[in-house]
Amino acid sequence: MRLMYNIREYMAIMNDQELKRLIAEIPIHELIEVWDDLSEDDELRIFSMLDLEQKVDLITSLSISTQEALIKSLTGDHARLLLAEMDPDDLTDFIQSVSPEVRESVWNALSEETKKETQFLLKYDSDDAAGLMTPRYLAIRPSLTVAQALAWVRKSVRKIETVYYIYVLDPLNRLVGVVSLRDMLAAEDSDLIDQIMIKKVITVDQDTDQEEAAKILETYDLLALPVVDSHHRLLGIITFDDIIDVIREEQTEDIYKMGAMGGSTERYLESSILDLVKKRIPWLIILLLAATITTNVIAHYQAVLQAAVVLAFFIPIVTGTGGNSGTQSATLMIRGLATGELHFHDIWRVLLKEILIGSFMGICLGLLTIGRAMLFPPLISLNEAVAVGTALCFVVLLATLVGSLAPIIISRLGFDPAVMAGPLMATIIDVSGLTIYFETARLLLHLT
């Protein structure tokens, strides 16, 4: 990695031949990490010295704006070779993301075969399983012998993305089985593929959501996942590296929602100020309006506050602790739903468990609050301290239940449960928690 930090110095003192040998020793992932720190001229110089495979690995990992700049720097023949070397799914994503001007030049640089592959993939929604797949896979007939199949694999291996699985199709291109390369190598040359293939194949439909496809691939520990149409014809396969990108994207979206933000998952430095404002301001407006309900609750209990002004000192403790408790529960539930550990039918088990957890935490925190109120300023009477502690106990219990049940119910309704963590959860708990706080104080202190 130290080599990359000194790359500018080497570029200044080395000729192109020496620099090319040096760059060949640098792993692509290290080059990607420091790429944004290079000047545009340095980027173009280094890019021109990479071999074709290295160029593909590099360009598919960079931001769209950088990809566009590099593509524009290539002549027609060099661009055509580079685009032809890209995996079809990566090329399709690139074409969909770049500006219309670059898109047109890229399209004109494609070979007819690559255009057909790209047009095939462009038919599908990018968020569906078919939008992730590559149409380059190995397929054979069940009537072949292992020796014939291996000969076909050797002949075709350079054209496809992965050789871990070989799919078995009938004359109508329907998926009837799958055989691993390992099983083929372990079998006798005279064995028929029909005899060694696995006939029960895990597949996804073409319109399966990408997040669901990622869960299936992860659950069954697969390296590739076949995508089929309504007639069970094989359309393509989703490879594990594409699923990693989906998981990263989905996790980013969840984090944004937990932070009360929406919009795309573009890189922060690639997003304009206006885009970032649009991503953040809508939820802030919603939360602001929701927070005004808290003001109404306090105004409603104005008489209680006037009778016991000291209660106002503990409002931040009640709302803050309640919000934290609810967010903790919501985070656990959202993670459980995301990993498939929890489902809607577990709601009653979750309810019982969270009642016990919320009660225990509420009692502990309530007693701690009573002790704090009696020992440290502002000092209050025992009755007032008990009222605050009891209210906090109920608030923590309620927040725990809301935080645990709301994500499960929202997920059941078909929405993303991630919205129930963070600021939105805290706002809901603030309103309900203050109501419980003032009602408990009014009853225990016999206030009007």
Q: Kindly, what is the distance between the CA atoms of the first and last residues, rounded to a whole number of angstroms?
A: 71 Å
The secondary structure category is mainly alpha
What percent of residues adopt helix (DSSP H or I)? 55-70%
What is the CATH class name of the largest domain?
Mainly Alpha
Number of separate strands? 6
Describe this structure in words.
It is a single chain. With 448 residues, the chain is mainly α. The chain folds into three domains: 2-123, MgtE N-terminal fold (Alpha Horseshoe), CATH 1.25.60; 139-242, CBS-domain, CATH 3.10.580; 268-444, Tetracycline Repressor, domain 2. The chain is built from 22 helices and six strands. The strands form two sheets. A three-stranded mixed beta sheet has the order 1-2-3. The chain has a three-stranded mixed beta sheet with strand order 4-5-6. Helix 19 (315-339) runs parallel beside helix 21 (382-412) and helix 21 packs antiparallel against helix 22 (423-444). The model has no long low-confidence stretch (mean pLDDT 85).
Summed up:
By secondary structure, the chain is mainly alpha-helical. The chain has 22 helices and 6 strands.
Entry keywords:
single chain, 448 residues, mainly alpha, MgtE N-terminal fold, CBS-domain, Tetracycline Repressor, domain 2, three-stranded mixed beta sheet, 22 helices, 64% helix
